[in-house]
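quick one, 123 residues, struct below
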Amino acid sequence: MTVVVLHIDRLALHARHGVPGAERTLGQRFFLDLVITAEVGDALTSDRIEDSVHYGHVIEAATVAFTRHTFNLIEAAATAVADDLLYRFPRIETVKVTVHKPCAPVTAFVTDISATVERRRHD
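---
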């Protein structure tokens, strides 16, 4: 078994997640961090993308899963992304999704608010 850990950091996406009406109307920028553990079989010796997980396809799938629906909670959005990636990519064993919401409407000065969800194939 050959396992690789892939990191996709700060994928910037525009979406309409949140509770206040303005967030759902105007939307805002979010950032996603993905940490994926995948069984890549012979990819390290074959050097064939078919033996690994194509991170371009992962980015496309994460983007669709994140923007397809409107969520109240960023942790619910993170769960939707994680579950979708496990469904679409059978080589993925674990996925950790962090959703960053740097412009959250709070009455404090913060640089970021984020939620992280981790899912495993056999949970």
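The mean pLDDT is 94.
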